[in-house]
């Protein structure tokens, strides 16, 4: 088994095919979208492939060290041009092919007009797997 | 008191296997055994049984019958139980052996087979297995119950495939150490038990391989967790008792003249373990064993390792020539090429290739190791010669 991170972006990734901002959806469309995501997570839990998942607030800041005795620097609450992560899910699957299959399934969540968003999801393997013994 | 402290873990697989042989389906038997274990932990501290295994069998069997009777839908299974001949004095090993085969059944995915083996044969708790594989307990519980459902209809009437069982145990071994359970040690324990139950040279080969690798574990990482390559390992930290045991088991297996991939791999590990210093490694013989391994498995990773061994036995250029015949997209191909280029004195090329290999690495320890290799060569080039 290998773990993968599925990243959803508010922005920074390529635009979705069905790219309508969520606030322009109907309440029913929003509910259908959320239900799809919850059902997806529940199915993965049932199949023994779910590790964790959560959503992040759209507001974020960049922070860095600014020298001894000084407070860290932030670049304000509106990092306009930057990549923003909307949420993630961590899965533990038998193969890369399975990870791609699941990412495709998650990307098919319904959006405006009840049609799949075709949103781009970022798929990243974890590096913390123990090394196989080969000497 | 824990399961391990009470000595219950050792008894679990035998008790489970007896219930299954008496006709209980696997999932129901497993539930009944778990109930009996909980009962044992409650009762035993004040009232220890004279025959712990007999006690567990009686309580688990009674528990299974209670549940089966209470459940009308299970009437059919009850009939089956009634028809089953009374339990004879079957040996411990027979029953446990069948459990190994059931838990490694080909209808299971490797991940499910691993989880079920650790639970049913190893007697680990779901939480321990979940911790070891870094997944939530609920996820691991689902994985195990799906696996139990998958093998629910399988009857233990004929021996399964030893090779499948060995692959599962090897997967467990390679997971190493993460939670409070050391999976490498657990894999050795389970393989050792399998070796007492079944007379098969490849079981012995796998046990020898595990022991020979495990004996070198303390030397394989530095205190900060970074990898120490074989040539730089402090050989005083190798566990010589474990090495002798591995070598002895391997020699007995090899004398049977039924070579398999695990025996061949163990032979290579034994040649490494046998060398007093890295320079005294018998690379010529190692190449010969890799030839056997390639012939047995056709495994591309074995071909890659063979090319590195050729580099040691016949020089870096011979190694690079052997490597050139292989698919360059193989995992660790670039890392092997980097190593052989450095050995050939081509430091710039080696540094570049180490950096590329680091980006391709699939685990953290390996990536950090390869990045350090690149940094080491780059630092050497940029430093004035007299410093």
Automatic annotation (TrEMBL), chain A:
PANTHER family the record matches: BLL7171 PROTEIN (PTHR35174:SF3), BLL7171 PROTEIN-RELATED (PTHR35174)
Q: Where is the YCII-related domain?
A: 17-106
This chain's source organism reads Actinoplanes sichuanensis
Q: Which family does it belong to?
A: Belongs to the YciI family.
Q: What is this protein called?
A: YciI family protein
The record, for SUPFAM superfamilies, names: Dimeric alpha+beta barrel
**Pfam family for this entry, one:** YCII
TrEMBL record, chain B:
Q: What residues does the DUF6596 domain cover?
A: 163-253
The similarity comment for this entry is: Belongs to the sigma-70 factor family. ECF subfamily.
Q: Which residues form the RNA polymerase sigma factor 70 region 4 type domain?
A: 100-150
The record's section on SUPFAM superfamilies has: Sigma2 domain of RNA polymerase sigma factors, Sigma3 and sigma4 domains of RNA polymerase sigma factors
Q: What is this protein called?
A: RNA polymerase sigma factor
Q: List each copy of the RNA polymerase sigma-70 region domain by range.
A: 10-70
**Keywords, sorted A to Z:** Sigma factor, Transcription, Transcription regulation
What organism does the record attribute this protein to? Actinoplanes sichuanensis
> Which Pfam family is an annotated match for this chain, by its short name?
Sigma70_r2
Q: Which residues cross the membrane?
A: none
């Amino acid at each position: 088994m290998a773990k993968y991170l599925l990243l959803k972006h508010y922005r920074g990734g390529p635009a979705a095919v069905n790219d309508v901002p969520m606030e322009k959806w109907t309440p029913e469309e929003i509910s259908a979208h959320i239900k799809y995501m919850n059902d997806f997570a529940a199915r993965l839990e049932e199949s023994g492939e779910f590790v964790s998942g959560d959503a992040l607030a759209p507001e974020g800041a960049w922070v860095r060290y600014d020298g001894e005795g000084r407070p860290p620097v932030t670049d304000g609450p509106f990092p306009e041009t930057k990549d923003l992560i909307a949420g993630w899910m961590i899965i533990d699957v038998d193969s890369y092919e399975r990870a791609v299959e699941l990412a495709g399934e998650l990307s098919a969540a319904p959006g405006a007009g009840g049609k799949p968003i075709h949103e781009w999801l970022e798929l990243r393997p974890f590096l913390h797997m123990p090394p196989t013994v080969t000497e | 008191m824990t399961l391990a402290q009470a000595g219950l873990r050792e008894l679990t697989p035998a008790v489970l296997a007896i219930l299954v042989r008496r006709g209980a389906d696997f999932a129901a038997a497993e539930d009944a055994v778990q109930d009996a274990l909980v009962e044992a932990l409650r009762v035993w501290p004040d009232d220890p049984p004279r025959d712990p295994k007999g006690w567990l069998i009686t309580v688990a069997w009674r528990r299974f019958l209670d549940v089966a009777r209470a459940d009308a839908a299970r009437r059919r299974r009850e009939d089956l139980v009634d028809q089953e001949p009374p339990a004879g004095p079957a040996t411990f090993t027979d029953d446990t052996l069948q459990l190994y085969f059931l838990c490694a059944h080909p209808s299971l995915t490797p991940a499910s087979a691993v989880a079920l083996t650790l639970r049913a044969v190893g007697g680990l708790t779901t939480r321990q297995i979940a911790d070891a594989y870094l997944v939530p307990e609920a996820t691991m519980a689902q994985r195990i119950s799906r696996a139990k459902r998958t093998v629910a209809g399988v009857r233990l009437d004929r021996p399964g495939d030893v090779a499948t069982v060995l692959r599962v145990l090897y997967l467990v071994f390679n997971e190493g150490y993460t939670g409070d359970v050391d999976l490498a040690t657990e894999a050795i324990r389970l393989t050792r038990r399998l070796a007492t139950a079944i007379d098969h040279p490849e079981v012995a080969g796998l046990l020898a391989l595990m022991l020979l690798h495990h004996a070198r574990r303390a030397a394989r990482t530095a205190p900060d967790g970074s990898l120490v390559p074989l040539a730089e390992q402090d050989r005083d930290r190798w566990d010589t008792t474990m090495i002798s045991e591995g070598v002895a088991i391997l020699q007995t297996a090899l004398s049977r003249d039924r070579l398999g991939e695990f025996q061949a791999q163990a032979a290579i590990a034994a040649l490494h373990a046998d060398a007093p210093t890295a320079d005294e490694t018998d690379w010529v013989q190692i190449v010969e064993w890799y030839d056997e391994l390639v012939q047995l498995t056709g495994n591309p990773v074995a071909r890659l390792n063979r090319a590195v061994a050729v580099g040691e036995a016949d020089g870096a250029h011979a190694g690079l020539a052997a490597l050139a015949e292989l698919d360059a997209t193989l995992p660790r191909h670039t890392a092997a090429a980097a190593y052989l280029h450095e050995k050939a004195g081509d430091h710039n090329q080696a540094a570049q290739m180490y950096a590329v290999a680091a980006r391709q690495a699939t685990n953290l320890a390996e990536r950090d190791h390869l990045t350090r290799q690149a940094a080491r060569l780059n630092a050497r080039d940029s430093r004035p010669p007299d410093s």
